[in-house]
UniProtKB/TrEMBL annotation:
Residues 35-101 form the Importin N-terminal domain. This is Importin N-terminal domain-containing protein. It comes from Monopterus albus (Swamp eel). One of its GO terms (cellular component) is cytoplasm. The keyword Transcription does not apply. Its main location: cytoplasm.
Length: 1091
């Protein structure tokens, strides 16, 4: 019998090995898929643990060892049915022995086994056996590896490195609070010892003459540096900094580590290593130095910080004096980051006091200038150098030290190097066909923002340079244009140089700070603005023949900065800039300057209508101008603006044309255009219906054309769609701008009832084409939105009810038809279906909460409009899987805000739903409570509060033996009583968030909690006892008292006064529980129970 079992095992192993080979080696996806399926079944099988051990013992291939290690990782990580403590200790010991006896495993197997060890250690950090924390002896576990061969040493160091990393990473399967408790305990008990160990081993290594050509010694040094980096990169206080916010980083080293940083040998160790090891490893050394340079300021007193900074600056000076490793791009990048940290963590006043400051700032300036001149090398690293100079320049007005900062000498050199190198790059890029940095708008914008501050330091020199370069480029450009035999390439080079100059001029003007700028500087701004406007006149006069898209985009960027600084309600009109504009260009005041803006906008829309980037940026500029209170009133007086208001047709503005767009989504910019026109029109519109009718003529004509097309059987569908989509986008812009009652009512009377049927017909015809339906639905959602109380109908007007009927009809038409599409592929489901559904939800929410319809009349008069809309909502909702509700942010926001309105005002409808629908809604609320989006989470709390309050009222009524309530109410109560686990689960979720997590919306969470407790008093008592019992014995009394105080003075009702008292009690409760838990190192078992 025993032999047969053994044979089965061996056969099973052979089978598993074949599957592993198929999974990792085959190129046939079907075979791989089958193997994957079989191995998933293996992972879930009850004898997985023993088979994994057999695989490790007897498996003949590395792949089977890898499978065993990953399966064991899954087993020890699972939250339901976890492995018993003894088993986990056995696995841990087995893995350590296995690694010790087999130091030459395949690298990926060693990695997977170390990962397994780290996972067991992390998850068992608080597990005790006979008062001993069994998984905490990490350094003891590793010591035997460190005393053996180099291979063993590498494994030992990698174990510590991987463990530090594992404990620092939050995982999604366990609560964040549990992760933070383990991370904090590891930080306090082990991390400093591990860091000290890694530094000592590095000292030993640097003391010996390492043979770094020997692969294993090279590998050991690399692992040691990674370990040091992981220790320094640890999330010490649980702020888990976002990787992208690199510059704002402060390393929150604990006070207990002071000794390591006060002793300059730690800093010296890394600088010495940098100079003694090959360039392939030095980026890791520099990464460690970046972290050390970012140690929080408060770790030192002033004298200590000055000493530390002095050693740091000396080290930087040494690297700059011996730059042989810097040509390596990774080294160069990390070194630039190190330079940036000099200013992000220390003040200019401290830097200038360092002994070698004059020499170091000269070296850094030379390094920066050289780097900028080699613009093609490591372009992503330039950001750090510019951020250093930006911060230095910004600090100049505040520096109190008597020592000279010398920035007036070096900053202009940096500015000059940036500007000249960008200009020189133009012809190289064209000649060699390289990628043009101007095409990366984000990068250019970031660098210009930095330059705007750097260039304002010693602004006279910046301006003189820009004027000189601009005049040269503009003169050459003009000569080339006038010459008959100039080549197109030469013209393109000059246009490229002018593009950079216009961008840079816009940036330095945008860098003006009102309190620090003088009249002379404003006059210099005037010099620069005059030149750009003169260039604009020249390029605009040539647009009929040719234009340069990049140069036009630079002009728009310049106009945007100019508008921000010199146009608007806060600007002094006596500015010297206007005096200069008046002398050179005859522009005497803001109105005349605005007419230049509008002239440019009209020119762009006329000549660049086919170029989407220019059109959208131009319209954004128009939109921004239409927002200012004083500027919009000045604009309306301009004849060019009156021209736009009277001639907004495709013959004047080609982007309004119907037949020239490549696809329907390109028409988005029309909404922006009409929003701006709507604001301009409203300034003088008042109640003048004739003026409104006049303005709407082109749109009336378009509507009539669509109506004409739709009335015949044979019409050009593409043309009808284009005309309609353009039209509804235009109308949405106008509707958005009209936010006062008089003008909005004119628009409403214009569109209803005459043109509403056309919109309904479009939805019927083209429901399957989202490019057509989404704009129509969005227009409807805008029309029913009671923005600024603009939808106030007269007492005798039925328009509110009629508008709701139209809304209901559109939602029902769209909803019923979109559901006929059946299964939509996952990658298209949002565009084809969910986006439209999301707009319908938003529309229904707007109309239900608009306060202009009395919804009681529908049932009273037997009108089914309300019922149809709500039933369609339910049908649409049930067709969406729960996961999609939370995966698509716009859908989740529109759904949860609609649900909030429904539970507040239409609870009778919710109560009448079928049990499976009620359960669907409740589980969506339950999932939403833990959503990352605070808006969704708050909406769920509010909806839950309405439901719980309704239930509580129904229960109170039924116990008072009032006349029998409606059958639906009984039914809802019945569903809840049949499924008490739903409400109980939400009670535990809310309590869990309040006690154990960083609860960002405590007030919202407190509102449904009281009702949940009152509906489930017995369950709450059990929950409370389990939380109390999970505390260490000495804390149980305090925790019990916290719960007593929570319910003190709380009555069994949901009156506002009682709720408010509960909310206050809850704040105190949360504070006390947190204080109690901060001082304890218990395992959060209760948390596991709730998760």
């Amino acid at each position: 019998m025993k032999w047969r079992k053994m044979a089965d095992h061996v056969q099973g192993l052979a089978q598993l090995e074949i599957l592993c080979k198929q999974l990792y080696e085959t190129t046939d996806t079907a075979v791989r898929h089958q193997a994957e399926k079989a191995l998933v079944e293996f992972t879930n099988s009850p004898d997985c643990l023993s088979k994994c051990q057999l695989l490790l013992e007897r498996g003949s291939s590395s792949y089977s060892q890898l499978l065993a290690a990953t399966c064991l990782s899954k087993l020890v990580s699972r939250t339901s049915n976890p492995l018993p403590l003894e088993q986990r200790i056995d696995i841990r010991n087995y893995v350590l022995n296995y690694l010790a006896t087999r130091p030459k495993l395949a690298a990926f197997v060693t990695q997977a086994l170390i990962q397994l060890y780290a996972r067991i250690t992390k998850l068992g950090w608080f597990d005790c056996q006979k008062d001993d924390y069994v998984f905490r002896n990490v350094i003891a576990d590793v010591t035997r590896f460190l005393q053996d061969s180099v291979e063993h040493c590498i494994i030992g160091v990698t174990i510590l490195s991987q463990l530090t990393n594992e404990i620092n990473q939050a995982d999604t399967t366990h609560p964040l609070t549990k992760h933070r408790k383990i991370a904090s305990s590891f930080r306090d008990s082990s991390l400093f010892d591990i860091f000290t160990l890694s530094c000592n081993l590095l000292k030993q290594a640097s003391g010996k003459n390492l043979n770094l050509n020997d692969e294993s010694q090279h590998g050991l040094l690399m692992q040691l540096l990674k370990l040091s980096y992981n220790c320094l990169n640890y999330d010490f206080i649980g702020t888990s900094t976002d990787e992208s916010s690199d510059d704002l980083c402060t390393v929150q080293i604990p006070t207990s580590w002071r000794s390591a940083f006060l002793d300059s040998s730690t800093l010296q160790l890394f600088f010495n290593l940098y100079h003694s090891i090959p360039p392939s490893l030095s980026p890791l050394v520099l990464s460690c130095l970046v972290q050390i340079a970012s140690v929080r300021r408060s770790l030192f007193n002033n004298a200590e910080r000055a000493k530390f900074l002095s050693h740091l600056v000396d080290g930087v000076k040494r690297i700059l004096a011996n730059p042989q490793c810097l040509p390596d791009p990774n080294n160069y990048h990390e070194f630039c980051r190190l330079l940036a940290r000099l200013k992000s963590n220390y003040q200019l006043g401290e830097l200038v006091k360092v002994e070698n400051y004059p020499e170091v700032i000269r070296l850094i300036a030379n390094f920066t200038v050289t780097s900028l001149q080699h613009w093609e090398f490591a372009p992503n690293s330039v950001h750090y150098l510019l951020s250093l100079w930006q911060r230095l320049a910004a600090s100049v007005p505040y520096v109190k030290a008597t020592e000279p900062h010398l920035l007036e000498t070096y900053t202009p050199e940096v500015t000059k190097a940036y500007i000249t190198s960008r200009l020189e790059s133009v012809h190289v890029i064209l000649r060699d066909g390289l990628e043009d940095p101007l095409d990366d708008a984000g990068l250019v914008q970031q660098q210009l923002d930095q330059l705007s501050t750097i260039g304002r330091c010693e602004y006279e020199k910046t301006c003189a340079l820009l004027v000189q370069l601009f005049d040269q480029a503009a003169q050459t450009y003009q000569e080339l244009l006038q010459s008959t035999n100039s080549s197109a390439a030469d013209i393109t080079v000059q246009e490229g140089r002018l593009t950079w100059l216009v961008y840079i001029i816009g940036a330095v003007i945008g860098g003006r700070v009102s309190f620090a700028s003088t009249d002379e500087q404003d006059a210099m701004d005037g010099e620069l603005v005059c030149r750009v406007l003169q260039l604009m006149n020249l390029t605009d006069s040539r647009l009929a023949q040719a234009g340069n898209e990049r140069l036009e985009l630079a002009m728009l960027s310049f106009f945007e900065q100019f508008r921000k600084i010199y146009i608007g309600d806060q600007v002094q009109k006596s500015s010297k800039l206007y005096r200069r504009l008046s002398e050179v260009l005859g522009l005497n005041d803001e109105t005349m300057v605005l007419s230049v803006f509008i002239g440019k906008i009209i020119t762009n829309l006329k000549y660049w209508g086919q170029c989407e980037p220019i059109t959208s940026k131009t319209l954004q500029l128009l939109n921004d101008l239409s927002l200012g209170y004083s500027s919009v009133r000045k604009l309306v007086k301009l004849s060019a603006v009156q021209f736009m208001l009277n001639n907004h047709t495709s013959e004047h503005f080609s982007f309004l044309g119907v037949n020239n767009q490549s696809n329907l989504s390109d028409m988005r910019c029309r909404t922006t255009f009409y929003t701006a026109l709507g604001r301009l029109l409203m300034v003088d519109l008042g109640e003048d219906e004739d003026q409104f009718e006049q303005f709407m003529l082109p749109l009336t004509a378009a509507f009539e054309a669509v109506a004409q097309m739709l009335s015949t059987n044979t019409f050009n569908e593409q043309e009808a769609k284009r005309t309609l989509v353009g039209l509804v986008r235009d109308l949405r812009g106008i509707a958005f701008a009209f936010n006062v009652k008089t003008s909005f009512m004119m628009l409403f009377d214009w569109i209803y009832p005459a043109y509403m049927p056309i919109l309904q017909r479009a939805i019927e015809l083209w429901y399957h084409d989202p490019a057509c339906t989404t704009p129509v639905l969005k227009l409807m959602a805008e029309l029913v939105h009671n923005r600024s109380q603009r939808l106030q109908f007269d007492v005798s007007s039925p328009n509110g009810i009629l508008l709701f009927r139209e809304t209901s009809k559109m939602i029902t038409t769209y909803g019923n038809r979109i559901l006929t599409l059946g299964e939509v592929p996952k990658d298209q489901v949002y565009g084809v279906k969910l986006k439209g559904v999301s707009v319908c939800f938003a529309m229904l929410k707007a109309v239900l909460s608009g306060n202009y319809v009395n919804f009681g009349v529908f049932r009273l008069y037997g009108d089914d409009a309300l019922d149809n809309a709500l039933q369609t909502f339910i049908k649409l909702l049930l067709s969406i899987p729960h996961s999609d509700l939370l995966d698509y942010p716009k859908l989740s926001q529109s759904f949860y805000s609609l649900l909030e309105v429904l539970t507040q005002d239409h609870m009778n409808f919710i109560a009448s739903l079928e049990p499976h629908v009620v359960m669907y809604i409740l589980s969506s609320i339950s999932e939403g409570l833990t959503a990352l989006d605070t808006m969704v989470c708050t909406g769920c709390c509010s909806s839950l509060d309405h439901i719980v309050t309704y239930l509580f009222k129904q229960l109170s009524r039924s116990t008072k033996k009032r006349p029998t309530p409606m059958a639906t109410d009984d039914r809802f109560l019945h569903i809840m009583q049949q499924h008490p686990e739903m409400i109980q689960q939400m009670l535990s979720t809310v309590l869990n968030i309040i006690i154990f997590e960083d609860c960002r919306n405590q007030w919202s969470m407190s509102r449904p909690l009281l009702g949940l407790i009152l509906l489930n008093e017995k369950y709450f008592a059990d929950l409370r006892n389990s939380i109390v019992n999970s505390q260490p014995p000495e804390k149980q009394q305090a925790m019990h008292l916290c719960f007593e105080n929570l319910m003190e003075g709380i009555e069994r009702n949901l009156l506002t006064k009682n709720r408010d008292r509960f909310t206050q009690n809850l704040s105190v409760f949360r504070r006390e529980v947190n204080d109690s838990m901060k001082n304890s190192t218990y395992g959060v078992n209760s948390n596991d129970m709730m998760s």
